[in-house]
Design goal:
With 279 residues, the chain is mainly α. The chain has 13 helices and no strands. The protein starts with a helix and ends in a 10-residue tail after the last helix.
Length: 279
């Protein structure tokens, strides 16, 4: 009985990321087959050559992510609503000032992460990071905005804060739940450098979720974060951040602290009640 209970607890935490991984894997194969047929190449020939198959997948990575996000969004929104019935009395009204602050937190968080990577020249150590980044950006800005800027943040927040974090809260304290969901979120990204800053980013996302008691809080931060990446990749020259990394890190840190303190002050004014968080 005890082993069954333990298995059920573990399964309730890992099933969503596992299903998401399976969906992405299946859609990768489906999209690879479809695009190989469109390109007029033989499927067997395309998959026999490792370099050819990787090139085909990387070339169409945005479409793979788009199809994965749409399918996953339908699946996990259903799971989320079935497993988390919100208590409307425990949900504060989402004020406009929070929208601005959450966007600034996402923006500054991205600026800080990017400037720190450039400041310590971490891409030289973690060479895989730049390769994976280049495979999904710089192709079609509209698709990037829709997929990376909107769909993926919503799907990931439904999974990791809406399902994983909420289920972890049933079995442990909020602090441990926040740390564990951050660890799972960082492992999911499967990139050593990205996993480091994503871990702290996930803690920030869960914190905003706890404080504002709505999944829209981490969704907005996540969207702002990803939108900043898309904007900076197109608006700034490759050497801009590396040349001004120290100044950007210092100014960004100060701005982030100020915004976070303002957020804290506003949150303390609200009459928070204990209970379930809601979308």
């Amino acid at each position: 009985m005890g082993n069954k209970t333990l298995f059920n607890k573990i399964w309730s935490v890992i099933y969503a990321p596992l299903i998401f991984f399976i969906v992405q894997s299946v859609m990768t194969i489906v999209c690879a087959v479809v695009f190989s047929l469109i390109a007029g190449s033989e499927i067997s020939a395309a998959f026999k050559m490792k370099e050819g198959s990787e090139s085909l997948i990387n070339k169409n990575m945005l479409w793979i992510l788009f199809s994965s996000a749409v399918v996953s969004l339908l699946i996990f929104y259903t799971f989320y609503k079935k497993g988390n019935l919100p208590n409307k009395e425990n949900v504060i009204k989402f004020k406009r000032i929070y929208l601005l602050i959450l966007c600034l937190i996402g923006f500054l968080g991205n600026v800080l992460a990017t400037s720190l990577i450039e400041l310590f020249d971490l891409t030289r150590i973690f060479t895989q990071y730049e390769d994976s980044y280049l495979s999904i950006v710089g192709k079609n800005v509209l698709i990037e905005v829709v997929v990376l800027g909107i769909l993926m943040p919503i799907v990931e927040e439904l999974i990791f804060r809406g399902i994983v974090f909420n289920n972890l809260r049933k079995y442990t304290s909020i602090i441990w739940a926040s740390l564990l969901q951050a660890l799972i979120f960082s492992i999911y990204h499967m990139n050593p450098l990205q996993s480091i800053y994503v871990f702290f980013f996930a803690i920030l996302l869960s914190y905003s979720y706890i404080k504002l008691k709505t999944l829209w809080a981490p969704i907005i931060i996540h969207i702002a974060y990803n939108m900043t990446s898309i904007s900076m990749s197109r608006a700034l020259s490759p050497n801009f951040l590396s040349e001004k990394a120290l100044a950007i890190t210092l100014l960004g840190s100060i701005a982030f602290i100020i915004i976070f303190l303002v957020f804290q002050k506003l949150v303390k004014k609200e009459d928070f009640k204990t209970g379930d968080v809601s979308i």
